[in-house]
Design goal:
This protein is mainly α and 84 residues long. Helices cover 82% and strands 0% of the residues. It is built from three helices and no strands. α2 (16-41) packs antiparallel against α3 (44-76). The chain is elongated, with a radius of gyration of 19 Å. The N and C termini lie far apart (52 Å).
């Protein structure tokens, strides 16, 4: 069982943007690999798996974007942030 300080450190350094962004960067090469495996084998399950991986990547984009936006807004100050 890890020490309680490890959990506190993990909670303190947790960044959703970094996890979502790098998770997506890891899925895209795997999806390309499955698409390349579709060509010689002709197995459509590889193609379907690649499509599912790309959908997961596309759904992770807002999860990555909004925390980064809020962190940037916090660092420059929310009162300077204008949408008009």
């Amino acid at each position: 069982m890890p020490k309680p300080s490890l959990w506190k450190d993990m909670k303190k350094t947790f960044m959703l943007h970094a996890i979502a962004a790098h998770f997506s960067n890891g899925l895209i090469p795997v999806a390309v690999l499955y698409l390349l495996l579709t060509l010689p084998t002709g197995n459509t399950f590889f193609e379907h798996t690649a499509q599912h991986l790309l959908w997961i990547t596309f759904l992770a984009i807002p999860v990555s974007f909004f925390p980064a936006f809020m962190t940037g807004a916090r660092s420059i100050g929310l009162r300077r942030l204008r949408f008009s």
